[in-house]
Each structure stands twice: as structure tokens, then as C-alpha cells.
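Illustration 12: Delta-1-pyrroline-5-carboxylate synthase.
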Amino acid sequence: MEAVDSTRAFVKDVKRVIIKVGTAVVTRGDGRLALGRLGALCEQIQELNSEGYEVILVTSGAVGVGRQRLRYRRLINSSFADLQKPQMELDGKACAAVGQNGLMALYDTLFSQLDVASAQLLVTDNDFRDLDFRRQLNETVKTLASLKVIPIFNENDAVSTRKAPYEDSSGIFWDNDSLSALLALELKADLLILLSDVEGLYSGPPSDPNSELIHTYVKERHEQVITFGDKSRVGRGGMTAKVKAAVYAAHAGIPVVITSGFAADNILKVLNGKRIGTLFHRDANKWGPLGEVGSREMAVAARESSRRLQAISSQERSKILMDIADALEANEKLIIAENEADVAEAQQAGYEKSLVSRLALKPGKVSSLANAIRVLANMEEPVGRVMKRTELSEGLILEKLSSPLGVLLIIFESRPDALVQIASLAIRSGNGLLLKGGKEARRSNAILHKVITSAIPKNVGEGLIGLVTTRGEIPELLKLDDVIDLVIPRGSNKLVSQIKASTKIPVLGHADGICHVYVDKSANMGMAKQIVLDAKTDYPAACNAMETLLVHKELVQTSALNDLIMELQVKGVAIFGGPRTSSLLNIPEAHSLHHEYSSLACTFEIVDDVYAAIDHIHQHGSAHTDCIITEDSEVAEVFLNGVDSAAVFHNASTRFCDGFRFGLGAEVGISTSRIHARGPVGVEGLLTTRWIGRGSGHVVNGDKGVVYTHRDLALQD
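Figure caption equivalent — predicted structure in C-alpha cell form:
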């Protein structure tokens, strides 16, 4: 199914559309009229007409139809002796005169069956030299449009002053492709659709398997590199003529789409904004890269590359990661320079400090990322690992193997280091990857993507990791549930919630990072101060930073708690109270107990005991990471077993909830989902399973004669 394309948003403003149908579409291979295609064409025009569009048809085919009819007349009017003589080529002008009559009769019949009126308008090149003719032409078309009549244009080849219909390309127009472009300008059309016998413009002859369909034509990019194939089998122009006409009209501000007239509904798809055929648009050279490489193409390329990645050896996959680590360190100065430019621009734009903090690659970060990639490269091979072996029946062995998920779409904000972690994890797990970073990190993301993909060997392909550069492509990507297997959003609650509501693709991630630290009455307060300060101030913008401090009621107004609160304030932490704390200690009340500050601020609330702390966390938390500080092991076990979060700690900072700190090498994110993966998601979270069966002629046959053993086997047998 074709996706709606953001580059084709102009269709919503289309009122008047010109459709040009070529000879190869109008006629069959034997020269006879293609009744089925013409019927589908008329049905689409009728539907557009009923929806209020002003449709103008420019049709070819009269000469071809006339030639076929005149050949038949000559055959039945010739003697056997006449037929033995060399046959003169039929006069093209006579063919046009005969064919035009038959072609229009057919259009009239087809449109009449659909309760639509049509009108014939034959024009010649010289007509357009007359200003009075052009004024009258506009008036006639205006009147016909007001009456919902379909004007059908064709060049009047029968009386044209050209030497022959297939010769002489001089003049104001020289074929029906250029006529349609001229009419688009003259009649102020909003869109021109050129129907051909192929899907659109290809990078080479469509029959060449190496040729690719060009979705958006950019003259500066394509003009010198496209190789055209043969001209139309029956018409005057072929693709060369269509491209010339399209470039001419597009330059004048009229969008043009070249697409196949063989499909029954391509015109309707174009008007619905679907990404079919080749678009010519005056502003195409200003559009981002995805105007050329579409979302679907990028996802398909990632899938194909991931299959090639899986096909190579484990040692080769590890080498790719090693090469990426080396490439990052070799380009560290360039990476830092691009990142500093992003940070400066973000500061100038007035972004929040927490976002700028996440955006900056701190000193030593590139080396740290490279080392983390090397750790991944040296991990035990995760793909194709035999997890279970079972003898189903004698000689029939079933294996359960770890397997990549397929294609991942990761949408993240601010943090360019996330791109490196995610890319390395995708390669280690054999997955294809599409990345969409925040616009504030566009320079950092672009250079990191370039460095990483340059280290991917050609036998795998740079398409393994695609970088999405425009926000407008996200809605289209989220519709590709047939090519993208998992979406992992890393960012704000708003971002994650919007994505979950906008796609059928499974989403793995968390919407909030509202992490709690509960200080029990039996806590070692020196330890509590150390953990709380680390959880809040080590990296306040992180999703595993403490956002709410819960304190047992018996600690209120103790000197140890006062010291802890004062130390937080000395570190610059703004403290807001819950309903109980704000009234008791005269602290400004937090506007919500379910709030992620992502900065030097936190909520402070008093609770009666561990059970009240658990209830508070379940009611106001986000099931991310929560911690208890206590010397009472029984209370600790109540908390550890009672809090339903992805990670729960005893006497340890919430900041430990991290893929690298967990020994996973890196993480694509932290999941609070219940299905598939929970907590920091490393390589294992990006894998699924598949089954391999090995038999020797086994058949079910209604289970007759099959003796099932279902015997577990050693994994290494």
C-alpha cells in the first residue's frame, strides 16, 4: 500500500487538473483500443468530476487508431495481386482524421454510460499564436467546467502544417505531452498528470534491473545522470518528451506527476497524496533528502541490509563494531566541533538548560562511546544462539534460536550519544535501524551517522542505518507496520504518548522517568545523604534521576533530615512539597506529584511507613526505577517485592539503572513496558526467537504412526 507523502501536500489545494493519456495507454499492442484501460480512465475522471474537480483530458491515440482502421480498409478493398505489391506507408494525416472520429466516439460512449458529458477540442500549433484564440479558449473551457463537461483536447494532426505527425518538433508545442504542459499554463491548471506505460521516471531504462524509480525529480541532480530507453512503441514522444514537458510546467509553478496509466486507480491515488510515480515540483531542490529517498525505501533498505548483516559471520559483525569504534576516535575533533555548533545554537535559541545538558558531548565522551562499542564487539555472539533443543520424535529435532527483530525505528530527542549506542546495539543484534533525532542535534547526528555508516562494508550496505532528517516524515514512518517491527521512543512524555497513539507498530519505552527514593526510619542517614544527592545531582536531566524524595514520618524535624535537605539546597536543588510536607514544613507545594523535573528540582513528601511509600509510588510513579534506603532487611524485602517497577534498588542510587552500568554494553532505552523487555534494553531486548526443525522425511499424516518423544536435548549435542 502506497504511503501518503508529505512532499505531495500540495494536492489539497488542487481544483483544476489536466490529465494527459499517451498512445501506449490508449491502445493495445496490436494497435486496437484498450477498452479496459479507457474505461478505468473515464471512471476515475467521473469520480473526480463528481467531487468538484475541473478535469481536462488531453488524449493521444488518434493516429494509431486511424492507422489500424485504414490498414483494414485497404486490406478488404485490395485484390490478391495488389497485396503482392510493396505496400506504401499510410498518410499520417489521413490516419489522424479517421482515428480522431473513432476515438472521440468511444470517449463519448464511455462518458455517457457514466452520465458525464464530454466535448472535443482540436487545436494546432498555429492556433496559440493568436491572442484572440487563446482568450476564446479560456472562455470555452470556463463555460464547460461550470457545466461539469469534460473538455478532451488533441492536436488536430489532420490539418496540422507540420510535415508529418511523427516529424518536425519545432513550434509552440510538438506533441501531446508538450501540448498538455502548454494547456496547463494557458488554462492555469493546479496539477498536470502524465499517464505513461511505466510507473514513472527511472534512473535508467525500466527494463534494466539496476534502474530505480525516481520519486521526486530534482533537475540539478538528475538531468545529467538519467539514461532514457526507447521511445514509445506507438506514440511520438516517450519518456524523454514527458520529462521535457514536466520540467517546463514545473518550472512555471505547476506540479506534475508522471505515473502509469495501466493501473485502474493511479489518478485517484495522486489526488489523494499517495507517493506513486515521479513528482516534478518547482521547489523539489529545497526539500530534504527524504523527498528523494522515501520512508518506505529507507525502511526496506534497512531490512535488506539487516538480512545481509545476519548472513555474515559473527567475527565479521564484531569487526564492523571495532571499525566503528576506531572511526569515532579518528574523527573526534570533527564530531566535537559539530556538537559545539549545535550547543551554541541551542543556547542562542533559548532552549532549557536540561536539554542543552543532554545535547552536549562532554570531554572524553567520544572515547567512552568507542570503548563501550568495543565491549559490545567482544560480547558472546547473541544471534543464532540455541536456547532449547527438543526431540519431537525419533530423528526429528527442533531448535529454538535467538533472532533479530528486523527493523527498528528509534525516535530520540537531544542526546547525540544515543545515536551511537543505538546503532552499535542494532549492529550487534543484527537489526536494521532508522534513526530520527531532535533538530537541535542535527549537526551532531549527521556527522555521527556519516562516520558510523562509512565503516559499514559494502557487502552489508550503508542502508543498514538510515537517518531521518525531517519531522514531517515521522507520521509516514509510523504507518509502515509492514516493514518496521519495533518503535523505541526516547524523549519527553509528550513525544512517547504521541507515538503510542499514532502507530500500530509495537512501541517499547517509557513515557516518564519519575523515580522515587524512600528513606525509611531505619536508614543510615549518612548513606541516605550520599545516595539522595547522587540520585538527584549526578545528572539531573537523566530519566533515572530522582524526582521524588519520600521520607518516613519519624524522621521529620530530625537533624539528619535537616542536613540532607540543606545539602540538596546547597547543591542548587529546588524543593517542592507534597500536600502533607508543604503544610507541615511550609515548603512551596508541587503542582503535581506525577512530575518529571529533569533539572535540579524535586518533590519531597512525608509517608507513614514502607506500605504508604509503595502506595505513593504506584499512584504517582511511572514504573521506571525506585529505591529504598534502610538497614531493616525485612522492610527492604517488602519494598523490593512490593514496588512494581522496571528496576527496584536497596541502598543504591537510581542512577545505576543504565545499560552500560548493568553490563549490557549500551542501551537503546529503558522500557517500562510489560511485554518483551523491561528496564534497560540492551542486545537481548532487541532479539526474538525462531524455530529450526531438522527431520528425515517426517510427515504428520493425521499423527498416524508418529511417536512423539518431546525429549529435551543438551544444547551442544
